[in-house]
């Protein structure tokens, strides 16, 4: 199939960017969206132009690196897939496709479609862990955990940290990302000792990174490629409120 | 200068590691605070090592080329992690895990290392659960296990089809905790481009800040590489696009020997290639072989849909050839068997390079169990299939979704089509028992080193080895070296060795940009991949390998005169990064062929067509090749072979038999 692409080009974080039109032809429906970009970049290199910079790595939907805003939706038109798992059979011949980077104050554009998501790492560093040093763990089966709890923790932990939730949100809020990590640990017995300290530290870091607030539109959940649930935000709010209203002994 | 001694501790096999740990020199807390360790790579091995070293009190700098340590390709590991816990009470033990690993590796791994790996395997599960890694559980609240290839016990722990993700996020959390405390300095979007060796010891690295292009010098009392495998030399593999050999190759050129470069793992169950545009291949976890049956039609070019082919017209060739292990034979055996059927003309799908992986039988079986649980003791087939699908979905949902995304077919309705693809490299930087390379102070961990898996890795053992090295082995063994370095002051980075290394890196980068040729980096990478797959892939022979060596040399020459790298070196320039990685693959590929040519036997993943049994199985030559081939770099295309003899004192070496 033949397609017209309107792609955001931006030299670096200091310059302003703009949408540039490109034509690609003979695109196979079996190609992934990123393979279509490989074809386009090969064309650009052969013409002596600069290829388009975009983040990608595993190309199997798990590393969370790919991050294209396609036709007004993070990761494109299909539900529950990342950009790398979006295939061209989801488009038709003659389509015009607009491709932009994630847009959020806390995710500055580095170049073209690549953005800086290091704010997420700093949020994790502020509390997204259980403080246990290597070498002192008890036998794993000494701590039975109800399957329902373990499964719920796993579902929250399935977040790939791509940032689609932030890109989808009109407030560029990171609540879904942060709450997924908070939930994973607050659902598990291992996470209890630091439960209330964790939520406060992570939220404080999230706020200082410049993410917006949550106004419950649910766009994050709708666009999350891994189906992370809005319930996590409710759970985080509950923990946060508890932590603010009560002392740790009372909570 | 080089230090080629495996340094295996004396004593009985089962006591070596225990004794080593109690006698290894220690570094006191005050001294640890002034000792700096560089860790390159942030996957399971790198992140766990960086976190643990920092917990112990060392000053750590950690580097990764991705935008976050959480993206390292360990994240994509699907099926699981082995541990000798014997939670299933099926007779597992440290010895059995050790034995299975040595046998699975076709008797080409070091006994002492593998036994240590089996010993610490149980600690890994404990550690990960303590970190809050949500491994799969049974209704009673205890951990669940599943089976993997090459074993007859259930010792594989898992988290759906995302075990690597969950374990990596555990290690990443531990790492970020140390970053938050200021004990690890994290450098993301940085690529190591050389190691700095001063007076014969590794003392730092040259790293390129990929965003600004700036070259940076970093000092360390020791340098640890956990930079993964080199499967991308084949262009198409299950590796991430960025996975590369560059850091390992740079240290190889600075004196670290490269062990068994030809040992490559071709994974039997991947989604087949669909066309020339393909940029990578996707694995379908080995755990699917638990519940899937592999078959091809008995009739060549059978035009019927798989569902329409009756049972007695199907050839379940793994069950036919290997009745004892059936669909759970090790990966190398399963891959070759698939290739044999396809080469013989029984392949399926448009390319005829695929076989079926069919879940119908187990879906029905699971459904029957579920129906019985619900009190329906005589369920019809439809009910069984409906209930069984739910079970399959819970076990492998994400894999089935991925398959559907990529192929456009529904694997719940029709069998998957699969074919072998490059997945893992058992070869890598040679290390001794301490995981130290032949360069003092330079360590290599995880997939990047050669140890533990011999000529073939068993499923669910990569995660085990990465975390064993990072959490439980290196943090101890590195003390043996660092305890002698406590009076070494940090070397200023204006030392001539740093200047020289940086200048060398800079001139290479300039050289790429100044060629201004006509063909893209990918063009050369694809050509190299084609040579490697055809002539140094699943089956190799002397003629093909000899040709491949010449073809690679010619391709390398063409690359250095005709590659086109756009942009400049002082900006974010992914094409320039790729050029550096492909340039290194063009050298590594040649060494892999040299190694494959010299090893005149078949073992594990290394299958030389000239050396096979009458039944087409790999035929080892223990009299002449029971050694690790460690190659020393002596200049372009010149490598000197060093042999580390493998002595089996605790295992009777035998022809592998999975029948």
From TrEMBL, chain B:
UniProt KW keywords: Flavoprotein, Oxidoreductase
Name this polypeptide is given: Fumarate reductase/succinate dehydrogenase flavoprotein subunit
Necessary cofactors: FAD
Residues in the signal sequence: none
Taxon lineage: Bacteria, Pseudomonadati, Bacteroidota, Sphingobacteriia, Sphingobacteriales
All copies of domain FAD-dependent oxidoreductase 2 FAD-binding, residue ranges: 37-463
Residues in Fumarate reductase/succinate dehydrogenase flavoprotein-like C-terminal domain copies: 525-658
Keyword Oxidoreductase: yes
């Amino acid at each position: 199939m033949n397609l017209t692409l309107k792609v955001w080009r931006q030299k670096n974080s200091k310059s302003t960017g703009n949408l540039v039109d490109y034509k690609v032809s003979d695109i196979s429906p079996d190609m992934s969206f990123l393979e279509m970009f490989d074809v386009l970049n090969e064309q650009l290199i052969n013409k002596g132009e600069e290829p388009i910079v975009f983040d990608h790595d595993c190309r199997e939907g798990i590393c969370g690196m790919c991050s294209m805003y396609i036709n007004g939706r993070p990761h494109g038109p299909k539900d529950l897939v990342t950009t790398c798992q979006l295939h061209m059979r989801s488009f038709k011949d003659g389509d015009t496709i607009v491709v932009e980077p994630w847009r959020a104050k806390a995710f500055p554009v580095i170049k073209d479609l690549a953005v800086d998501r290091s704010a997420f790492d700093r949020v994790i560093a502020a509390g997204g862990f259980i403080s246990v040093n290597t070498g002192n763990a008890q036998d794993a089966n000494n701590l039975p955990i109800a399957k329902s709890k373990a499964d719920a923790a796993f579902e929250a932990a399935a977040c790939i940290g791509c940032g689609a939730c932030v890109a989808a949100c009109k407030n560029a809020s990171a609540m879904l990302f942060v709450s997924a990590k908070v939930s994973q640990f607050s659902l598990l017995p291992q996470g209890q000792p630091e439960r209330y300290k964790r939520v406060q530290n992570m939220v404080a870091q999230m706020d200082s990174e410049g993410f917006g607030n949550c106004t419950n539109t649910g766009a994050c959940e709708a666009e999350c490629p891994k189906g992370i649930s809005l319930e996590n935000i409710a759970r985080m709010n509950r923990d946060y409120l508890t932590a603010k209203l009560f002392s740790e002994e009372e909570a | 200068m080089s230090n080629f001694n495996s340094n295996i501790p004396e004593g009985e096999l089962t006591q070596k590691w225990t004794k080593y740990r109690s006698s290894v020199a220690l570094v006191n807390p005050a001294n640890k605070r002034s000792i700096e360790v560089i860790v390159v790579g942030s996957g399971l091995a790198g992140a766990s090592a960086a976190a643990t070293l920092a917990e112990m009190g060392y000053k750590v700098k950690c580097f990764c080329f991705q935008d976050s340590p959480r993206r390292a390709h360990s994240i994509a590991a699907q099926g699981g992690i082995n541990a000798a816990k014997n939670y299933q009470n099926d007779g597992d033990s440290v010895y059995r895990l050790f034995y299975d690993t040595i046998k699975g590796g076709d008797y080409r791994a070091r006994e002492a290392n593998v036994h240590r790996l089996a010993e610490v395997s149980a600690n890994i599960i404990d550690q990960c659960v303590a970190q809050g890694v949500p491994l799969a559980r049974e209704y009673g609240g205890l951990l669940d296990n599943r089976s993997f290839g090459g074993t007859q016990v259930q010792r594989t722990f898992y988290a759906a089809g995302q075990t690597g993700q969950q374990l990596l996020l555990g290690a990443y959390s531990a790492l970020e905790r140390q970053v938050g405390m200021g004990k690890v300095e994290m450098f993301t979007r940085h690529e190591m481009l050389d190691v700095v060796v001063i007076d014969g010891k590794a003392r730092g690295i040259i790293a390129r800040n990929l965003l600004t292009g700036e070259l940076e010098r970093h000092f360390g009392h020791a340098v640890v590489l956990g930079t993964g495998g080199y499967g991308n030399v084949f262009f198409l593999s299950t590796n991430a696009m960025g996975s590369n050999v560059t850091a390992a190759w740079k240290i190889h050129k600075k004196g670290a020997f490269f062990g068994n470069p030809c040992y490559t793992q071709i994974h039997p169950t991947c989604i087949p290639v669909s066309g020339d545009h393909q940029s990578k291949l996707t694995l379908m976890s080995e755990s699917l072989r638990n519940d899937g049956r592999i078959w091809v039609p008995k009739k060549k070019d059978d035009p019927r849909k798989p569902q329409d082919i009756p049972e007695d017209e199907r050839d379940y060739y793994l069950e036919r050839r290997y009745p004892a292990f059936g669909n759970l034979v090790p990966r190398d055996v399963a891959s070759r068997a698939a290739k044999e059927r396809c080469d013989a003309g029984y392949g399926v799908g448009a390319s005829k390079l695929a076989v079926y992986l069919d879940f119908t039988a187990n879906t029905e079986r699971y459904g029957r169990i579920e129906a019985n649980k619900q009190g329906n003791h005589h369920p019809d087939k439809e009910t069984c299939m409906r209930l069984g699908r739910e079970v399959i979905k819970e076990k492998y949902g994400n894999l089935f979704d991925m398959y559907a995304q990529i192929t456009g077919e529904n694997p719940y309705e029709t069998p998957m089509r699969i074919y072998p693809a490059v997945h893992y490299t058992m070869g890598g930087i040679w290390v001794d028992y301490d995981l130290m390379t032949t360069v003092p102070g330079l360590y290599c961990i995880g997939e990047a080193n050669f140890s533990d898996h011999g000529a073939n890795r068993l499923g669910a053992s990569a995660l085990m080895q990465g975390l064993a090295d990072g959490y439980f082995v290196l943090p101890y063994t590195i003390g043996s070296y660092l305890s002698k370095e406590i009076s070494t002051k940090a070397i200023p980075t204006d030392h001539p060795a740093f200047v020289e290394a940086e200048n060398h890196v800079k001139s290479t980068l300039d050289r790429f940009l100044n060629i201004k040729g006509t063909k893209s980096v990918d063009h050369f990478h694809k050509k190299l991949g084609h040579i490697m797959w055809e002539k140094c892939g699943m089956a190799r022979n002397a003629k093909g390998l000899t040709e491949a060596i010449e073809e690679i040399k010619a391709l390398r020459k063409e690359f250095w005169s005709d590659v086109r790298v756009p942009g400049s070196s002082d900006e974010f320039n992914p094409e320039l990064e790729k050029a550096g990685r492909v340039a290194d693959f063009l050298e590594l590929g040649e060494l892999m062929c040299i190694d494959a040519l010299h090893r005149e036997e078949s073992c594990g993943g290394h299958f030389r067509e000239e050396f096979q049994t009458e039944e087409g199985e790999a035929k080892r030559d223990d009299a002449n090749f029971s050694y690790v081939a460690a190659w020393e770099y002596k200049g372009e295309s010149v490598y000197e072979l060093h042999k580390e003899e493998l002595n089996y004192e605790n295992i009777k070496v035998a022809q592998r038999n999975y029948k």
